[in-house]
């Protein structure tokens, strides 16, 4: 029995060693990917409710891996957050997405009000260079700042409230807008929410999923939309897959929607077709 215990320890150590090796390999691969610029940006339409008209897009990063194919963020973002590689990758996503949307504004004049939402992870938000990065990208791409939405999560807000308020105010002073992503899954209290200079609440898909079947989810979604209205914020419902979800949300007065019902994330070329259809 003692031997078994020792073996277990050995196996445990071996697997920790294997984890450390895998982690180091992934890190090296991701560093190479940053150098080779292997990240691509997809775009998912955000639409007006109930009309369904495209009013903006969310930029979603993918990794065009040389052998494993196109990888979604769930396969690498957590790792880049741990290592800090999210900072250069995120800056690249911001630049690519803003250039793309500026190109739509130039090429399709009626689409010059389309917005672009970009996800910021906590690590990027805490980086002192964030403000300069945003300022440079706005300058270089010529995009109107009010067309840019930065999405941050609730847990990031609660991390260091005073410092967060300062950074958000500086971003807002540049003219960009702030959305709270995955709203409802964190733990922000109503009183805190008032302290943050924000523009948009994105209601997490978890509540939208149950909205037609589950009275509690429907009540929560209704409460978030009401909260948004009371605080004069716009609301975006995420992960709308069914027409009945859309009609409930639009009856509740939710401003915007996003989800497979309207469109899946697509390449810049695929979304360009949709922008032309909506605005030409
Ligand atoms: P998120 O910000 O909540 O983005 C929405 C996710 O939901 C996207 O997954 C999108 O493809 C998916 N989605 C949208 N509509 C539907 C729907 O109707 N049904 C279902 N089942 N899914 C839907 P994706 O692209 O895999 O991104 C996952 C997460 O990775 C994002 O969640 C975001 O937290 C993170 N992420 C993506 N791009 C970036 C980035 O450039 N920077 C950072 N820091 N994080 C990113
Ligand atoms: Ca998001
Ligand atoms: Ca989200
Ligand atoms: Ca999410």
Automatic annotation (TrEMBL):
Keywords of the record: Membrane, Transmembrane, Transmembrane helix
Superkingdom of the source species: Bacteria
Domain called EAL: residue spans: 23-279
Protein's UniProt name: Uncharacterized protein
């Amino acid at each position: 029995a003692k031997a078994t215990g020792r073996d277990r320890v050995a196996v445990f150590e071996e697997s920790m060693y294997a984890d450390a090796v895998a982690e180091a390999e992934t890190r090296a691969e991701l560093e190479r990917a940053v150098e080779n610029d292997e990240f691509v940006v997809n775009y998912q339409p955000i639409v007006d409710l109930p009309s369904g008209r495209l009013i903006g897009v969310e930029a979603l990063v993918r990794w065009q891996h040389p052998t494993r194919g196109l990888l979604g963020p769930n396969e690498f973002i957590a790792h880049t957050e741990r290592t800090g590689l999210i900072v250069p990758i995120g800056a690249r996503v911001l630049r690519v997405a803003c250039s793309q949307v500026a190109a739509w504004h130039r090429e399709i004049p009626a689409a010059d009000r389309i917005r672009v939402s970009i996800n910021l992870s906590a690590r990027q938000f805490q980086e002192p260079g964030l403000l300069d990065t945003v300022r440079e990208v706005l300058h270089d791409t010529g995009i109107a700042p009010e067309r840019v939405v930065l999405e941050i999560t609730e847990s990031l807000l609660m991390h260091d409230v005073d410092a967060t308020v300062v950074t958000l105010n500086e971003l807002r002073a540049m003219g960009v807008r702030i959305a709270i992503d995955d709203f409802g899954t964190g733990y922000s209290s109503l009183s805190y929410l008032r302290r943050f200079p924000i523009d948009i609440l994105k209601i997490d898909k978890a509540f939208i999923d149950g909205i037609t079947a589950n009275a509690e989810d429907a009540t929560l979604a209704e409460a978030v939309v009401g909260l948004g209205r009371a605080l004069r914020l716009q609301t975006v419902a995420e992960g709308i897959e069914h027409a009945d979800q859309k009609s409930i949300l639009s009856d509740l007065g939710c401003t915007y929607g996003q989800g497979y019902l309207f469109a899946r994330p697509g390449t810049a070329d695929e979304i360009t077709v949709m922008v032309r259809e909506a605005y030409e």
